[in-house]
Amino acid sequence: MSEKLEKTLKGVAALSMFGWALFLTLSSSEIKSAIDYYLPKYLKQHLNLCFWVIVVSFFFVGVIVVLTKRWNLVASFFMRLVLGGTFILAAIPKILDPKGFALDITHYDFFPKYVVNLIAITLPWIELFIAFSIIFAVAQKGGVLLLNLLLITFLVLLGQAWIRGLDIDCGCFGHSGAREAVSKAFIRDLFFVIWGILLYFFTKNMTLSHVKN
């Protein structure tokens, strides 16, 4: 990897961490709602503490990326963990309630009716495969490729819903009732797309290093 590209990736990785921490802070009400839905009962009373632990964690990872020479390992591990964890949280409710997820898909008014049920049944399992692939680095190149394809597809769907002014629940985490504005879901997915692209470069660089050795 060239020195110029490495500096660019390092800057993008750090800025995305700081930006995500700021986004979480500004979007606290809806993000907290989503966090609260998935927290175990014994942690629900500590919702604010859990939220700020997440925000501060992203801020400090951004600082580490700026300061450490092994920034790519730190950033890639954190991004893999967050993206993988998010995909697990997104997949499981949809696997358990495909009917509710199918209903959420119809709200986009984008897909033909005859493919909605197929998407509702298959997509959550693909998300789960991607999650385990990038977290445990199993078939990682394929997992990162699928990750980016899905994230860009989600970004397009959310973008067209935002432009059309659709007041819908994005259904990203299943038919959960943890409602989030389409505009904020779009911004959230934009961060994830950036991390997915960064992971592509990290994976490509690790592959090249392995071949050279």
Summary of the model, kept short:
The protein has 213 residues and is mainly alpha-helical. Helices cover 82% and strands 0% of the residues. The chain has 9 helices and no strands.
Can you walk through the features of this model?
- The structure is a single chain.
- With 213 residues, this protein is mainly alpha-helical.
- It has one domain.
- Helices cover 82% and strands 0% of the residues.
- The protein has 9 helices and no strands.
- It has helices at residues 3-26, 28-38, 41-44, 47-67, 71-96, 98-106, 113-136, 140-163, 182-212.
- It starts with a helix and ends with a helix.
Keyphrases for this structure?
single chain, about 210 residues, mainly alpha
Note the topology.
Elements: H1 3-26, H2 28-38, H3 41-44, H4 47-67, H5 71-96, H6 98-106, H7 113-136, H8 140-163, H9 182-212
* Strand tally: 0
- Summed up, the helix count is 9
- Biggest beta sheet summary: none
Return the average pLDDT rounded to an integer.
85
Helix/strand structural class: mainly alpha
The fraction of residues in strands falls at under 5%
Unreliably modeled segments: 207-213
Which outline best applies? globular
Give the SSE string: HHHHHHHHH
From the alpha carbons, calculate the radius of gyration and give it in angstroms: 18 Å
Number of domains: 1
The first-to-last residue Cα distance is 15 Å
Helix share of residues?
Answer: over 70%
